[in-house]
Amino acid sequence: MPIAHTPTAVPVIVDEAKCIADKGCTVCVDVCPLDVLRISDLTGKAYMKYDECWYCMPCETDCPTGAVTVNIPYLLR
Amino acid sequence: MTVFEPFEAFGDLEEIAERLASEDPSVRRLAVLDLVEMSSGEVVPLLAGAILDAEPMVRQQAAQALGEFDGIEVAKALIGAVPDPVAEVARAAADSLAELRDPEASSVLLPLVTHPAAFVRAAVFRALKALQVDASLGPAIRGLGDDDSAVRVQAVGVIGYLKKTETLPSLISATRDKSADVRLAAVNALSFARSEVGAQAAAAALSDPEWQVRAAAAEAIGRIGQASAAGALIASLADGYWQVRQKALQNLGRLRVRDEVEAIVAFLDDELPSLRKDAAAALGDIADPRSRDALTRHTGDADPDVRKTVIWALGQIGSG
Amino acid sequence: MDEIKSGLTEVVCDVLVIGGGTAGPMAAYKAKRHSPGARVVLLEKANVKRSGAIAMGMDGLNNAVVPGYATPEQYTKEITIANDGICDQAPVYKYASRCFKIIQELDGFGIKFQKNENGDFDVKKVHHLGSYVLPMPNGDTVKKALYRQLRREKVLISNRYMATRLLTGRDGQIAGAIAVNTRNAEFLVLRAKTVILCAGAAGRLGLPQSGYLWGTYENATNSGDGYAMAYHAGAALANLECYQINPLIKDYNGPACAYVAGPFGAYTTNSEGNRFIECDYWSGQMMQEFYSELQSGKGPVFLKLNHLHSDTIGKIEAVLHQVERPSRGRFHENRGTNYRERMIEMHISEIGFCSGHSASGVYVDEFARTTVSGLYAAGDMASVPHNYMLGAFTNGAVAGEHAAEVAVNIDLADYNAADVVREQQRVLAATRREDGIPPNQLEYKTRRFVNDYLQPPKVTAKMKLGQARFAEIREDMESAMVVRDAHELMRSLEAASILDCAEMAAFASLFRTESRWGLYHHRVEYPEKNDDDWLCHSILRKRDGRMIAEKRPVAPYIVPIDESERSAYDSQRIRQHA
Predict the structure, then answer these.
(1) Fold of B265-320
(2) Distance between CA atoms of C339 and C279, rounded to whole angstroms?
(3) What residues in A contact C58, CB-CB < 8 Å?
(4) Which CATH class is domain B8-100?
(5) Contact A27 B33 (CB under 8 A)
(6) How close B134 gets to chain C, by Cα (Å)?
(7) What is the residue-averaged pLDDT of chain C?
(8) B196, B248, C281, C540: most buried by Cβ count inside 10 Å?
(9) pLDDT of residue C322
């Protein structure tokens, strides 16, 4: 059974211009209770890797530069 | 098996200090965050340095960080940042000052109650409030005459937290302040005094032009608990705001004065279910048998909360 | 990151706390304060800084027993009645007697409770039964403040490790736990003299109506791992059929916040704008009334604030949109809903296990001890009914102190090395397959069947069908699940916990052949409460590899409930058959 990938619009958006993950920041990745954020090897910025969001907002609240925005997942909106 | 400790590190002060000296402000800012994580008082001198950083975002982070620590050194560092030209830094420093709990910190705060900037004066009074030291009392009473209403509100807070009977005259004068915020704070603050003079001041505030102040005054009368103020509450049952009428009903119940049950009974027919409910609750608190018949007529009210409260009230009368 | 590596480390400690949410940090803190020389480890599958049900704090206490406002006796009585008589009062009374000290202690940590202008706690009276509500308008800092205390006390914090099974010694006493790293799949064996389970609710049991697996009432990270671990270690679990179901904002799935908005004058209404709830207590009976109204011609149900003054609503928004579930404001904004203009549509949540709001939990006594020697439980997963956040803190403290005291006086138990090998094989089996079924599909299917077959009203034939479906899913999980990275490995283990909980929910519900706790256990074929046969706990446990259930008497009341009070509650048992 090969595995397919179904596209989803992820709720957590990162403003790459503001994100300082490339300077060593991992705050949003650390504080996510569901551990769905990662730092991209390509851009050095944070992004949402897994669409498993409780829209709880520590990532947004604790981000030191205000780079993260949590939207309500589309299915709930 | 490998040898390794799967536990969070407690942080290395020297290593973080190096990053604090980085050219890159983002790196300095992250270093500040790591200092907070260490959660130990030994990081305070480094944070006190960071709050003087050339870059506002580092200063802001440091001001915020200092809120997690306590003591005179923290207070000194923060006071320096309250007049910061960048508003976010100033606000963060003021907020952090309000987190101080060490009474010793008052010694550095008190000299600043006459600072030329109103924002600083307000922040200082706000911080002094939580420290609850008697030495703040005189400056706070003088602060009631400050030109800035935000400062006066905080000064009321300092006095209210200390709960000294001798401050009642100043709190009472603050209930007549030109700013509604100050009047509201003062009315709330004077309810610690279980005295006639406090009750009369609260009763006077029932004719305040602002409905929130009037509602708070009704609440204060209930807390003060002097039956003599019941008449003023009865008059407030005709207030133009239902919110004030509701508070009046609730606090008439608290005073347990039996003279005026008729006025309360009338509210069992009010169009607002919340007022019917609070009327029934007040009648239950007062437990005067004269209200039994009226309550009995309302056991079938359309609103379940009213019905329940009516039945409870009848129970109170039955057993009282 | 997330790549699966092999590795096994063993660490030794005195007290191991599993779960760094609410009860866990308090348990670890108290254990360390009690025995400063002890090695206390706090294990958390996320990061203690922001984990568990109160990741974003809490907007208030709804069960604060503050001197001058309520007494422990009164509280114990009310909880006993609200839980339909099935209540061992000793732990409830202990909570009620101690919780005010805990509030003061939390206040000292810098956690902010609302104070009046005289610096006193601003307890709110919501109804005539007693005043238990203490708002926390700045409650978003709870976790940070706790974390500082843990660091100061030098508690050993182990983030990103998910405990998968408890280890027991030869005589069944606790010996530690096995955990797996959620970022690289390396194993950790933690030997401990005492273990405190604080792994939270089983909040990912039912499927929210949105179909989004993560859109649950509880923090979706709380997947019932503690219930599953306790079960596999042989501990007794109590009254699991007493589900948690809560009123909530429809679709958003956030709490209804009657306790925040209530003191300001907001209330729950039907579509005609009228109140309909008869029940005095936050209970399954209240939920039954809520459910009936939803299903009736007067449904759906709404939260009514639009009669309040705009300034008052501003104050409510300042709390609701900052603390606990702050994305709520964004949800309303998307929908164009303003509290000032219209009522807010409400609904009920999916089912779960949670003693925080109901009573389903691992059985504990007044020292937070489970039935396994050396194993404790506290918070949403322990059986102290209706204990909410303050109960998690208070009972966590009780557990931490007792577990530290016991640990001082005993030796480490030896575990069986074969158990570790077996557990590694179980955990890693899905990583060794090239293809198969991913965990999210297994989870979705389990939870969809939970809704189809276990959600009340409960029907015997449906629950049995559910059991058959769960057995099929288990077979798929064991023979065909595939996992591709360490993150997915965590999800696969959670899916296994969820399936365990689903089976326990069905089993416990079938065992109790009566209806009790209103909607929570409404059995259609047994519509009446039957005190003669069922005024007792139902206890579920694993014996010889199989699930069994038995009755356990309710401990004699220490605070008597007189007949009129009980019948007053029974008389609210209305419209159940309407």
Answers:
(1) Leucine-rich Repeat Variant (1.25.10)
(2) 25
(3) none
(4) mainly alpha
(5) yes
(6) 14
(7) 94
(8) B248
(9) 84
